[in-house]
Write a structure and sequence with these properties.
Helix content: 25-40%
Number of helices: 15
Strand content: 15-25%
Strand order of the largest sheet: 3-2-4-5-7-6-11
Shape: globular
Radius of gyration: 25 Å
Oligomer: single chain
Largest sheet: 7 strands, mixed
CATH architecture of the largest domain: 3-Layer(aba) Sandwich
């Protein structure tokens, strides 16, 4: 009765590599593998004992390794620095479940990554902003309570129009809450959680294998638009592991940044050159202090739209507020259109998710479709702004079900932006959804839809 039907040669090769420096451990593992194989070959068990044959996974060819979300995110941050040809400063304060990203990045000094464990969350965020001001890529990280402390400093990054990556490894809350349990309860905090009208692009990773690319994408947006970017992950993703296809970095597009302008000489012309924004991205030139001929003022007080001088002018403040919103909205022009992961592009039911609910929604929708339920799955990566076609796509479904590990935050944002009826499916137990929970909600929604017909 074979419980393990794979060729032993690759397993033996892996054991030899893994324990090459520990001969006794290597020998013990080899004997255990051989003993298990012999037992399966000689044991006389009933053929009625259930057996499950697991076929090859539907994965593209390539070299794979197991990776956690935290490690993949750290590698993505380091790779973003390489693609941008900029040094990285990762400034953080220890907090569960965000700390592993700091631990991993501390090993990557040879890749141009500097790490700074600050005395508190505010100092960590301000240090990252200082790095960006100096021409490096500033990255800061925390969980919900720490992000709350960083809020004023994040507003400073918005006001100064500097790139900053803010990683939020979400956990159960509020306050200290459930440090070792997972939730998706910081979406409101990322989109709305600052004083005044202070919009920020928000992107969310869907699993450990997605964290590498999401870090690069967040950095690309931050440098192109000269803005802070929120990158949302959570405790489940940070600690979970999955297969990751080792990427060919030669296939990644370099990350461009807005170069400093030529020094015009005249004082007023210098100010205007420093604050002249790109017509498409609204990103200003990146001018580190000490750039010859481009000395300029920068700070948290409201500034003149064109010169950067302190301004209390009413019309100017209106214009600056509109600029900040236009900058975030312009990100949508560079996003791919939202796609449907499985199911029809219009129909009776769409199940819309974000973040770590991806896998469980996939299985639930797959199971529902096998039972004849006409359901579709849509998983969102960008949460602010949304892809330009999302509103039209969602309007093609009679019902929209949104499972999320909070009390309905994405559902609220979708209603706000698109004025569509959204049905939340919420869970805040500190544990991920089960496939059966989402499948039951899909069946209930489909049953109501059929009754209405």
């Amino acid at each position: 009765l074979w419980m393990f039907g794979r060729d032993r040669a690759p397993v033996e090769a892996w054991i030899n590599r893994k324990f090459a420096s520990e001969p006794a451990v290597l020998a013990g593992n080899m004997m255990a593998l051989a003993a298990g194989h012999a037992y399966a070959e000689t044991a006389e068990h009933s053929a009625e004992i259930p057996q499950f044959a697991i076929g090859p996974a539907p994965m593209e060819d390539g070299d794979y390794r197991s990776i956690t979300g935290a490690e993949a995110l750290a590698l993505g941050v380091a790779a973003a620095g390489e693609l941008a040809d900029k040094p990285i400063l990762f400034a953080s304060y220890p907090i569960t479940p965000a700390s592993p990203v700091l631990h991993y990045l501390a090993r990557y000094g040879e890749l141009g990554v500097a790490t700074f464990q600050a005395e508190d969350e505010i100092a960590a965020c301000c240090a990252a902003i200082g790095a960006s001001y100096g021409g490096a890529i500033g990255v800061t990280s925390s969980s919900g309570p720490g992000i709350a402390l960083k809020t004023e400093a994040i507003g400073l990054a918005i006001a100064t129009e500097l790139p900053l990556i803010i990683v939020n490894s979400q956990r159960g809350g509020p306050s200290t809450g459930l440090p070792t349990k997972t939730e998706q309860s910081d979406l409101y905090q990322a989109i709305y959680g600052r004083n005044a009208d202070a919009p920020i692009p928000v992107v969310a990773t869907s699993g450990p294998e997605d964290c590498f690319d999401i870090a690069i994408e967040a950095t690309r947006v931050a440098l192109r638009h000269m803005t802070p970017v929120f990158l949302l992950t959570d405790g489940y993703i940070a600690n979970a592991a999955g297969p990751w296809a080792i990427p060919d970095m030669a296939k990644y597009e370099k990350i461009a940044s807005n170069a400093a302008p030529a020094a015009p000489g005249d004082g007023d012309a210098v100010k205007r050159a420093v604050w002249k924004r790109d017509a498409d991205t609204y990103g200003r030139p990146w001018v580190p202090p000490g750039t010859p001929g481009l000395a300029h003022r920068i700070g948290g007080l409201e500034k003149d739209l064109h010169t950067g001088d302190i301004s209390y002018d009413a019309k100017n403040h209106q214009a600056m507020t509109e600029l900040r919103f236009a900058k975030v909205a312009s990100v949508a022009k560079y996003l791919p259109h939202q796609t449907v992961e499985q199911g029809p592009t219009s129909g009776p039911l769409a199940v819309v998710g974000w973040g770590s609910t991806h896998g469980v929604i996939w299985r639930a929708v797959e199971a529902a479709r096998k039972e004849g339920i006409d359901a579709a799955q849509i998983h969102l990566r960008w949460l602010n702004p949304f892809p330009e076609n999302l509103g039209a796509l969602l309007s093609g479904y009679a019902r929209v079900l949104v499972p999320e590990m909070n009390m309905g935050q994405l559902a609220t944002v979708l209603r706000d932006r698109f004025e569509i009826a959204v049905e939340p499916l919420t869970k805040v137990s500190g544990q991920p959804f089960k496939i059966a929970e989402i499948l039951a909600a899909i069946k209930a929604a489909a049953g109501v839809a059929r009754a209405a017909e």
